[in-house]
Amino acid sequence: MPTLIKDKFEAWEKEAQDRFNQLKANEEELNKIFIDLYGLQDELDYHVEDKDVSVSLADRERDIKSLISYAVGCMFGRYSLDEEGLVFAGGQFDMRHYSKFKPDADNILLLTDDEYFQNDESDITNKFVNFVSVVYGKETLEENLQYIAETLGGEWNKPCCYPEIFHFKILC
């Protein structure tokens, strides 16, 4: 089913904000209870500043970079789209854990702007574009690449721009 990264991020942003608000309210309620219990109303304030709440809010740039980091982990076989958590951290590598997205066979990914390698399946940009296509659908690929590029400060005006943006804004 085709999915837009933008829609997924907006849902995550709302969920993160709701969790943040709930945790802040819980912390303030606990502060009120302890202040009342120990009679510290004149000495302490129950309010909690946002910077002191122990969960993070969604951050579009940070979260897109985390998605890219996860994608690179999948490219090297550390993670798999087929299983949760860490799949490979050494030992005997088993390709049976990877059916949706195959890691690079020799674990050598090219990061170059040399046109000679742009159609190579070991080119990290090609691998990343394939990852986005597999995870979010071919139907939404261009829109998802545009969203990622814009998030990273790239100017998107046609698909030929994303190799430059991904190489120099994300992966370097």
Could you please describe the fold and organization of this structure?
This protein is mainly alpha-helical. It contains five helices and no strands. It has helices at 5-37, 60-75, 124-136, 141-151, 162-171. The longest helix is centred in the N-terminal third of the chain and has 33 residues, at 5-37. It is elongated and about 70 Å long. The model has no long low-confidence stretch (mean pLDDT 88).
Unreliable residue runs: none
> How does the helix and strand content classify structurally?
mainly alpha
Output the helix-strand order. HHHHH
Shape estimate: elongated
User: What percent of residues adopt helix (DSSP H or I)?
Assistant: 40-55%
Rg calculated over all Cα atoms: 22 Å
Count of individual beta strands: 0
Straight-line distance between termini? 31 Å
Name the beta content range. Answer: under 5%
Count the DSSP helices: 5
- State mean pLDDT (0 to 100 scale): 88
Could you give a short account of the major beta sheet? none
Short synopsis of the structure:
The chain has five helices and no strands.
